[in-house]
Amino acid sequence: MTTVAAYAATAADRPLVKTTIERRELGPLDVLIEIRYAGICHSDIHTARNEWGGTRYPVVPGHEIVGVVSAVGSDVTRHAVGDRVGVGCFVDSCLECEACTSGDEQYCAERVTGTYNAVGRDGEVTQGGYSTHIVVTEHFVLKIPDGLALDAAAPLLCAGITLYSPLRHWGAGPGRKVAVIGMGGLGHVGVKIAAAMGAEVTVLGHSLAKREDGLRFGAVDYRATTDPQTFVDLRDTFDLIVNTVSVNLDMDAYLSLLARNGTLVELGLPEHPLTLRAFSLARNRRSLAGSMVGGIPQTQEMLDFCAEHGIGAEIEVVPADRIDEAYDRVVASDVRYRFVIDATTI
Question: What is the enzyme's main class (predicted)?
Fold first, then answer.
């Protein structure tokens, strides 16, 4: 075992503290990564503050990890010392079930192992990217293309693939009208990706406060959902709507914006069950679906796509001793659009 520095949550109502954790010794198929940046995802906050329940304290959050390979196991062939690499939301799966062999490891039938707050096959609780180093099996390590800055690439390991996967799966592209509900940490990346895919993108925001940004990111229209006229003007319009917010919405109102055969994909995880009228789906043969990040092959595809199109997250880099301040600002929606921790300050 190797001891490394980290920032951990020790209780739901306490600030994160600097501590040390143990990383496993390098196995034949393992990669040791010196972490340079770790994105702050709202999932980190939910877990650190036990808002979803089930947090195993102490926990080191962070599943938007980028850095440089500092050592590799004897049988590693995909990565070499000095490579720029990333790690996303999970670090293990069975690799044998139909989902895994199809490149959908996130839906592993045997249980995917989250990057933090999960129990690995060794029985140990996984600890994430708010640390100086991490050891990950090579299969779950992504290559960061040279065209991406490491700090702006970090949020792509969660936010980027969370949007890229449904946009690709449901065919965003030329001739398709796509709406993105919410333009926060997830939504702003989705606007960029959908526009780069060639879709006609509309942002559905709570207000018009971010309209200028939305148009700059590639949207052709930006509407306020607090304006009832929005739901009149855009009725039966969209082929695909991706919902990035985690609050309970009027599902019937948003489903009414779908064209025939259109799909609304839930990406946010609201606290309460969704409610809707069956007629909202039956009319226009609409669909309501969900999606959860993406597999390793698709995540690599996303990173390559973002590098090709110059897409990175809009970020504010903070030192590790300001994590709690960043958490409070995320909750207050006081960031445009993602915080990234400088892991060299840990």
Answer: oxidoreductase
* 65-72 vs 30-40, strand pairing mode: antiparallel
**108 in Cβ contact with 97 (< 8 Å):** yes
Vertex 96 angle, CA 91 and 99, to 5°: 75
Q: Which residue has the tokens 């304006």?
A: 227
Residue 80, both tokens: 């070499």
C-alpha distances in Å from residue 114, one per residue of 8, 22, 123: 16, 17, 13
Tokens of 32: 């040791």
Residue 135 CA to residue 156 CA, distance in Å, equals 20
**How far apart are the two ends of the chain, measured CA to CA in Å?**
19
Q: Tell me if 148 sits within 8 A of 37, measured CB to CB.
A: no
Tens of pLDDT, residues 109-167: 999 999 999 999 889 999 999 999 999 999 999 999 999 999 999 999 999 999 999 99
DSSP lists the bridge partners of residue 82 as: none
Q: What are phi and psi of 266, to 5 degrees?
A: -85, 120
